């Protein structure tokens, strides 16, 4: 009984302090079909270079999987940016960051640079104009500073350039939000740019959308049919009961984890 008490105490303490009050994690098991405001997918006509993107266990990041991208021009996204089906994820003015983890495979080739990274995009609607704020490693000091088969993370201080603008005049998401008043967010995507050719191979995970009210991290994980042992379930239930009691006593909000298959 002393062992169980110690474990529950550890679960209780780690749950309360593990993450900010308004942080949430969404587990994404598959990428297929059309994206929406709550599911990841692809837009017909976007993956025109023959590239592929799938959730796999080839290079796990936070758990057993990540998003594996091969070939030219892949685009996997949450939300739709096209008239008639456009999603609205809120005002750009409330957005403070968009980050992700990325990794270049050892066997990856492309005509640009050995350190050519996947791209992260924030899809916005500015009046009647569709625009994108685009993160690429080339404009954030990654060239000459990365290793193959190694995970890296972007930050809220990284620069994004805007479609139609000077790629060397990037700004942070927060800076763009302060300038593009009235703009709204339609979605965000991760993928590979045109011209990467069929030899390109990279991974992405933990796409995190950050606003004034909190953050949501999309963690790509391979689906698993494993079922916890009865003793594990009992311990989990006991631990969650203890956490619930502590939350009522301390009025503390903890991390919310939502799992679904897109």
How would you characterize the overall build of this protein?
With 262 residues, this protein is α+β, with helices and mostly antiparallel strands. It is built from three helices and 14 strands. Helix 1 packs across helix 3. The radius of gyration is 20 Å and the shape is globular. The N and C termini lie far apart (41 Å). The model is unreliable at 1-20 and 226-262 (pLDDT under 50).
Q: Which parts are unreliable, with pLDDT below 50 for 5 consecutive residues or more?
A: 1-20, 226-262
Q: Largest sheet at a glance?
A: 8 strands, mixed
Radius of gyration, taken over Cα atoms and rounded to an integer in Å: 20 Å
Mean pLDDT, all residues: 83
Give the number of DSSP strands: 14
Order of helices and strands: HEEEEEEEEEEHEEEHE
Cα distance spanning the termini: 41 Å
Number of helices, where a helix is a run of at least 4 consecutive DSSP H or I residues = 3
Share of β-strand residues: 25-35%
Helix content: 10-25%
Task: Describe the secondary-structure layout.
Layout: H1 2-17, E1 23-28, E2 40-41, E3 52-56, E4 66-70, E5 75-78, E6 95-104, E7 119-126, E8 129-135, E9 152-153, E10 161-162, H2 173-179, E11 184-191, E12 201-211, E13 214-220, H3 230-250, E14 256-260
Parallel strand pairs: 1-13, 1-14
Antiparallel strand pairs: 2-5, 3-4, 4-12, 5-11, 6-9, 6-12, 7-8, 7-11, 8-10, 12-13
Name the descriptors:
globular; disordered N terminus; 262 residues; 3 helices; single chain; alpha+beta
In short:
The protein is α+β, with helices and mostly antiparallel strands.
């Amino acid at each position: 009984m002393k062992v169980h008490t110690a474990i529950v105490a550890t679960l209780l303490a780690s749950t309360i302090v593990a993450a900010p009050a308004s942080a949430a994690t969404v587990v994404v098991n598959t990428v297929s079909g059309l994206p929406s405001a709550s599911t990841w997918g692809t837009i017909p006509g976007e993956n025109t270079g023959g590239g592929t993107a799938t959730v796999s266990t080839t290079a796990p990041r936070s758990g057993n999987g990540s998003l594996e991208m091969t070939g030219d021009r892949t685009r996997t996204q949450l939300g739709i940016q096209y008239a008639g089906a456009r999603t609205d994820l809120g005002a750009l003015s409330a957005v403070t960051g968009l980050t992700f983890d990325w990794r270049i495979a050892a066997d990856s080739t492309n005509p640009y640079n050995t350190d050519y990274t996947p791209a992260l995009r924030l899809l916005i609607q500015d009046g009647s104009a569709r625009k994108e704020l685009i993160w690429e490693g080339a404009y954030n000091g990654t060239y000459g500073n990365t290793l193959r088969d190694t995970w890296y993370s972007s930050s809220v201080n990284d620069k994004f350039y805007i479609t139609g603008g000077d790629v060397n005049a990037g700004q942070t998401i927060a800076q763009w939000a302060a300038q593009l008043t009235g703009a709204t967010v339609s979605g965000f995507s991760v993928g590979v740019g045109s011209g990467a050719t069929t030899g390109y191979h990279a991974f992405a995970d933990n796409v995190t959308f950050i606003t004034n009210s909190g953050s949501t991290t999309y963690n790509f994980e391979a689906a698993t049919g494993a079922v916890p042992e009865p003793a594990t379930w009992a311990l989990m239930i006991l631990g969650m009961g203890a956490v619930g009691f502590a939350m009522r006593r301390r009025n503390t909000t903890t991390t919310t984890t939502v799992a679904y298959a897109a």
